[in-house]
Structure formats: structure tokens, C-alpha cells
Amino acid sequence: MTLRRWRLQTRLIVLAGLVLILVGAGIGTASWLSVRGSLMTDLDAQLTSMTSHARSGDGPGAGPGASGNTGTSGGGDDSAAAVDSALRYLFQPGVGDGALVVVDSGDGGEGLIAEAGLTRPRALSAEAIDALLEVEPGGASSAHESVRVPGFGAYRVVAFDDGGTTTVYGVPQGNVDSALERTAWTTAFVVLFGVIATAALMAVIIHRQLRDLRDVARTAREVTDLELSDGKPELALRVPAELAVPGTEVGDVGASVNRMLDHVGSALEERYRGTEQMRRFVADASHELRTPIATIRGWADLTRPYRDALPAEVTTSLGKIDSGAMRMSSLVDDLLLLARLEAGRQPTREDTVDVSSLLVELVEDVHVVNPDHAISLDVPPEALEVRGAADQVRRVVSIVLTNACVHTPPGTNVHVEALATRKPVSGQLPSDVVAIRISDDGQGIPPEIRDRVFDRFVRGDPSRTRQDGAKGGSSGLGLSIAAGLVELMRGGISMSSTDAGTTFELRLPAA
């Protein structure tokens, strides 16, 4: 999950926390380095003072005797004198606890360390002496080094080379290291506490500052939840005026959202007015067409007793007039029904309809008209009953079943089944429904119209008529009427189609 996909509030808090951590780490590191520099400077000054006194021979005190613990007894040559002179410093009063001196004149190194509570310095181990003699002689303060002396811990040391004799002076660094460790832990705790406290405070501040933006987003979500597809659109929601004042980021967004909603509302109003005008025109035109169409059919019917005496061409023409008038009358009736459904003026009833027997009748009727299709029916032995008007249920099933036959080639298998189940209908929670599935193994509905099969004037055949002219023309209104009638009965209809076939499912409330 990338940072861009996080909520703005989360991103701001995380980024602010990271900045605080970096700043806190920088401050803590700088503080620790400053303390370390100060302590090491004091320690180097102590070491410099020690070496200055030791090498100048200042201060009272007697050197070690012949029987002392310096390791120099019995020596009277220059080398022994040099070692004795260097180690003599540790016998002076006031020498710091832990101070040490190591001398190597070429005959083997010797070393002593002053310890509190002892009247005389203690000899260093050979391992400690070897570790100290590895320090390169320098003498200047810049040559001070930190080394770890076996058995004694960390030391700050400096080495001198006096004509072949190497002398190493050292003071303990343990107190400095302990102080630095305590400083590090204290600084880390303070920085961590400060980061957490500041981050929590910033989270509260950011949350409060983004409250206005959340209000704008809530308005946008409420708009998306509105049902704007049917009926007169009501788009009265707006971002509150105090949040839509340009000049700030939130104000600019709020003002833009309100302007967008104004444009959308105007467009919806215009669309609604155009749709209403079209509905009224279709209803009025259909109503006005019924009279002349009925007149044409009436005059055509008056000629029936005399058609045997008329020439064949005239009889054929009258038959075409009659069939055309019937198709036109059916189309006008469909348009009127669709207009009433869309306007919510189509009445319905809450009868109990026996779906099982209705399907048996419809399958038999459709099979007679379409003998070149294999139509099968599968219904449970118990009766399936739904709430609705019997003629409307029959009309819906007939439309879908007829489409399955007339829009597929001969030899197609059409299967009809009905079963009781629990599914949501008309946006309600799942309830007891009767599902009627009508499926075929034909070529399927073209992909480009699958999302529009329930719209008006949508045809599966791109031409204006079906491929089999004997079955009559296609108005493209059947599935629109079916969807409207199912919705009127508080049911649902859906479709799934592939290249291997199509399935329609009708869901009607169980009685």
C-alpha cells in the first residue's frame, strides 16, 4: 500500500512524525556529541596535566627503594634508572585513582597503576602492558588515544619516546563512558517522549484542522447516494456557505463543489424537462394514433366478406394493410403502457398467481409458435405462488421467453425453471421470492448492448426487423416493458450473457 493511497490525515501525521523523529534524533545526537566533546576535553586536560607533572619531576615524594614493587631492584644502569624515574610519579601523594604509567626501555616493559585504598601502586599484568605499548608515541594532545586495557577497561593514554625509552601515561575513561551512556539513554528517552507528545498534539491539531474538509467530503458522499436516475431530480445539497468561501484550500474546494452541483442540478433539470416532454409527446401521439389505426383496421375488416371476389393483388394488399395496422396498434399499445409505467400511473393488483401452471401454459403456447426450438420446463412439485397481477406476470414471462426463441437460431435449447429462494428485490433486504430463470444456448447478446438491454428501442438485431420476417418486427420495447412491470410488482430482473448463451432471471415476491 503506497503512501498516496493513505488518508490525508494519516499522511500528514506520519510525515510530521517522521520530521519530528529526524529533528529529535538530530538534536539528541548533537547534544550527545557536545557532552562527549566537553567530557573528553576535560579528560585530555587531566591527562596532559598528569604527563606534565610526571615528566617535569615536580612534587614531593621518594622513589621506590631497593625492595620496592617496581621491579627495578638491583639495577644500577641507565635503563633501570630511566624506568625508575618514570614510575616514581605514581608514588607521589595526590595521584588520581586509576592513573597508570608503563615504561619500556628495550629490556621489557614495566607498569604500575595507582588505586584508591592502596598506599603503593600495583603492578600491571603483562597483557595490560602489551596493550598499552601498542600506542604509537606522539606526545601532543592530538595524539591522545582511547584504548581498552585488559582487566581495567577503557583508558585515555598518550605515549612518549625518550631516546629509545617508551613511556605511556593513562587515566581511566570509565567515568566518561558511563556518563555518556547515561546521557545517551536520557537524551533518547526525552527525545522519544517529546516526539510522541508532539506527534499526539499534532494529530489532534491536524484532525481539527481537517474537519472542514471532512464536511465537504461528507456533502459529496451524500450527493453520490442520491437517486437521480428516475423521477424529478432533487439536488438541494450544498456545501455550507461558511466552508465555501474562496481564499483558502478548503474554501476553494467547497466553492468548486457548489458550482459543480449547480451545473449538475441545472443539467438534471433540463434532462428531466426534456424527458417529460418526450413522454408526453409519446403518450399524446400514441393516444392520437389509436383512432386512425382503429379506423384503418375497421375498414380493412369490412372488406373481408368480399375478398374472394376481388383480384388477387387487391386481396394481398388488403392483407398487408391489415397486418401492418395490427403491428402498429401493438406498438402504440406498448408505447402507451411504457409511458404509464415510467410516469407511475400503471395500476397493478396484489393477487396470488400460480407461477407453475402459468409457466406450463406459456411454454406450450410458445412451443407451438416456435417448433424449431427445444423448450424445456423445470418446476418443483409443490405450487409456486407470487404476489402480483396475473396478466402482468404472464406478459413479463411471455416477453422474455419469446425473445429467447425469436433472437436465437433454429435448434437452440431454451430452458425455463422456477424455484423458491431468498434474494433481495427492489433494493430491499433478502426475502422469500420466486425466481424464474429463462436461459438459452444461443449466440448470446452482443457485448455492446448488454448494459442497455432494458432500455427503450434497444434491439439485438442491428437491422430494423428480425431476421425471420414471419415472426413480426421488433420494436425494442419488450424488455423495457418487462422491467417496468417487474418493478411495479416490487420484483427484480437481471440478465447475464456470454457467447455461449443468455440467462434472464425474474424475481417476484412470494405469496
TrEMBL record:
Q: Which reaction does it catalyse?
A: ATP + protein L-histidine = ADP + protein N-phospho-L-histidine
Q: Provide this UniProt record's keywords sorted from A to Z.
A: Kinase, Membrane, Phosphoprotein, Transferase, Transmembrane, Transmembrane helix, Two-component regulatory system
| GO cellular component terms attached to this protein's record | plasma membrane
SUPFAM superfamilies assigned to the protein according to its UniProt record, in alphabetical order: ATPase domain of HSP90 chaperone/DNA topoisomerase II/histidine kinase (SSF55874), Homodimeric domain of signal transducing histidine kinase (SSF47384)
Ranges annotated as biased composition (Gly residues): 58-77
Its EC number(s):
2.7.13.3
Origin, by domain of life? Bacteria
Where in the cell?
A: Cell membrane
State the residue spans of region: Disordered: 50-78
Q: Enumerate the Pfam families for this protein.
A: HATPase_c, HisKA
Q: What is this protein called?
A: histidine kinase
